[in-house]
Amino acid sequence: MNNQPLIFELSKPGRISYSLPSLDVTETVLNELLPNDLIRDEAPELPEVSELQLIRHYTALSNRNHGVDSGFYPLGSCTMKYNPKINEDIARLKGFTHIHPYQSEDTVQGALELLYDLQTSLEEITGMDEVTLQPAAGAHGEWTGLMLIRAFHEANGDFHRTKVICPDSAHGTNPASATVAGFDTITVRSNEKGLVDLDHLREVVGEDTAALMLTNPNTLGLFEENIVEMAEIIHNAGGKLYYDGANSNAILGIARPGDMGFDVVHLNLHKTFTGPHGGGGPGSGPVGVKKDLIPYLPKPVIAKDGDRYFFDYNRPESIGRVKPYYGNFGINVRAYTYIRTMGPDGLRKVSEDAVLNANYMFRRLQPYFEAPYTQHCKHEFVLSGKRQKKLGVRTLDMAKRLLDFGYHPPTIYFPLNVEECLMIEPTETETKETLDEFIDVMIQIAKEAEGNPEIVQEAPHHTVIGRLDETTAARKPILRYEKA
Amino acid sequence: MKFRYLPVTEQDKKEMMESIGVNSIEELFADIPEKVRFKGEIDLKEALSEPGILKELGRMASKNVNSGEYTSFLGAGVYEHYIPSVVDHIISRSEFYTAYTPYQPEISQGELQAIFEFQTMISELTGMDLANSSMYDGPTALSEAAMMSAGQTKKKTILVSKAVHPEAREVIKTNAKGQNLTVVEVEIEDGVTNLDDLSQKYNDETACVVVQYPNFFGNVENLAEIEKIAHSKKGLFVVSSNPLALGVLKPPGKFGADIVVGDAQPFGISAQFGGPHCGFFATTKKLMRKVPGRLVGQTTDDQGQRGFVLTLQAREQHIRRDKATSNICSNQALNALAASVAMSALGKAGIKEMALQNIQKANYAKKSFINNGFTVAFSKNAIFNEFVIKLSKPVKEVNEILLQQGIIGGYDLGRDFSEFENHMTIAITELRSKEEIDNLISALEGVK
Question: Are A341 and B48 a contacting pair at CB < 8 A?
Fold first, then answer.
């Protein structure tokens, strides 16, 4: 396939792709309305294309993109499950798209009912006491949650709790969110089973501990089975326990963060609750808290009085706003639609099937790759490409080889504590047949690494473009088109 | 009960368990301590069929008064504009909306190229060297700009005009607390930033000066004068801007802004109760390596073909971890695509025409209010598509009356500014006809 020109390169003066009504008020000379020095004198270089040109351009681009609907997408920790079409239809209802955040409460009772019911559902699913829907994405939820913890400690006159503990397997956003919330990060090691090393945790915890951030199941796909002890260690030291909900697809209806002892939880509605991912957003990252943190939630909170829903701004101890208006409403509508579609039985089955699919793939692939941790996994698992690396084939090469077979590769080189890591998350929406086909291809690649390593090292062979020169891209950045 | 999204059959399950070497699904969860196992069924409403969902969610949607059926004059940061039909057709292509962040460039060239084009369009509109791939929304982008200024200048005070959107100021304050920064607000005078107050508050500790263009009252700020003050010491000059207005207004880049942010919502994104919208972040080459969020760059493959990749990732959280200056990961990619499609559809001519219609119609309305004996606040100022009128009754009451006539009235300025009780901000976009404007004026006759 040839390169698709940039839309600017398709442009020709005089073509248009819009249709505005003609101006129906008396026109005033522009410089009577705006001082001359505020009037733009050079038009922005935007495309001039016909409607068909525009459609063909973006259709060509979409053909150069792989989504869940295109094929299997086992990207670990991202929960690339099927995105139901009914969600999209519902989110496009005029009563949801054409409402303004500053309309009076009386005119948006349906929207408020939906949000209130979503809050309540998420409280029930996570076992928390109150939920805010304001945060825009997972990382935004993490930071919000940490700001709540900070407000809690400070309200208790506790200004010396400056440290947030994160496992070495944590998502990069965890330490970054801690920094942005004004904390220092301490890393706690994992043990040989891939779980938090309790002795090390006892060593690093102290009077300066603000919180422990934990993903459970963790990023290795393993359940932190010592969670009760960990909660005790943190709580005894006066710290709070933060739950990163990136991996909650494994535990719906099976175990709840609130019951495990977590004080704050965020969920990624674009992962577990079929957001969709949108090519990198928009997401939604609601945060749930236990009772003692409720006063600090961002305002407004959506509340109910009899049959009437309203925005509760009367939150004097609130950390303030973290986002304009009420969060990513359109994504929340999709997540709510999904929850109502699945119900309690469906959600539990989601997790059971996600875990079954992951374990099936794990056991079938285990003979061909190094498996650093051998216990049953939850919704995802990690393999190491160490064996293949000795043959000169890196995990990156294997990932690129998968592209030749029409698959999106797993997450690679993460978590950082696993050498040549491959992190695989099949999700519950894939058939056994799809898993089997993928497994066969993985086995074939492992064999190629032994007998024909070049074919893997030089992959991909069948994509629209070959491996790209990322070094030059970073050294001499070209971040925009400029007319020659 | 069977679920259409769950394909594992009883037979599959049996075969898979055998392959794993377990006798029950329970065994796979044996590592979850008994004590924290959830017993029973979560208390949620039972599953609904597809027709059932349509009915139930349709009921909720129909309870909302929407601007498809009513004539709306609400703006204040979120606007109802013409959305070219092509936008929804493109963003409904599931190769785009069911993909994730383009980590594997070979099979993500479509998304990467679309973002590269978005970055170019935003740079062009704002008059800046470069732009990132998007932020959550305008206010959080503005807050990131303020935080980045503090990081860059090593100064601790953020000066924000009170003519900046009140919710954006609130977001900045929440963020500033996390970073131990101080936010100082600059007073307004006659609907624009008070330059004397700004000069007085600006000092050696100022990290940046933050203004909005056009500002929250609809007035066009004097960026040339503000820039002089903003750059009189080490501070940076940060401008939040409505990108549609830049079809007619001289872009902040031409006034020497260091960072220009805003929300691309006016381009192809519906109001949808305030989100998701699409923040943008544009800056200079000098600050390129401090930009938060994702950047797409152009490069070549091993055959010399042009291609696109995520680049300068050393700035980002997944590499820098606790040394990162921003924690943003997911952004608003699909909405950036919507904005790109809308900007492409409008194109060079359409953006100007649409911006001009906003300015012409809003000025027609403003003049008509004045001619009909209404008090228009700050009336000397140049406006884009919003202005403020003073009424004789509380805006809340007035809006209730308007609603009965099929009109969603303007924004109650008094809710955020106690000095502006009974003041209403009215937004007039290209979608409001002369007749609708005239009707609004008649409907308000009794409360002027």
Answer: yes
- Give A 441-460 residues with CB within 8 A of chain B: 460
Cis amide bond preceding B214, omega within 30 = yes
Which secondary-structure segment (H or E) carries A265?
A: strand A264-267
Closest CA to B113 of A137, A57, A325: A57
| DSSP 8-state assignment for residue A464 | S
Q: How far apart are CA A125 and CA A255, in angstroms?
A: 9
pLDDT interval class at A2 (50, 70, 90):
low
Question: ∠A12-A13-A17 over CA atoms, to 5°?
Answer: 80
A414 at B interface, C-beta within 8 A: yes
Selected residues 332-391 of chain A with any CB under 8 Å from a CB in chain B: 333, 336-337, 339-350, 352-353, 355-357, 359-360, 363-364, 375-376, 378
The structure tokens 């969060």 sit at A327
Structure tokens of A343?
């119900």
Count of CB atoms within 10 A of residue A229's CB? 16
| A421 contacts A86 by C-beta, under 8 angstroms | no
pLDDT tens, position by position, B267-311 = 999 999 999 999 999 999 999 999 999 999 999 999 999 999 999
Q: Are A381 and A439 in contact (CB under 8 A)?
A: no
ipTM of the complex as predicted: 0.98
Residue with tokens 């090390």, as numbered in its chain: A200
Distance CA A414, CA B319 (A): 11
Residue B401 contacts A where some CB pair is shorter than 8 Å: no
Put simply, the answer to whether B101 touches A18 (Cβ < 8 Å) is no
Q: Which residues of B touch A346 (CB under 8 A)?
A: 1, 3, 6, 47
Query: pTM above the 0.95 mark?
Result: yes
**Of B422, B430, B425, B428, nearest in space to B447 by CA:** B422
Q: Are strands B206-213 and B236-241 parallel, antiparallel or unpaired?
A: parallel
Residue B257 · residue B201 · CB < 8 Å: no
**CB-based contact, A180 to chain B, within 8 Å:** yes
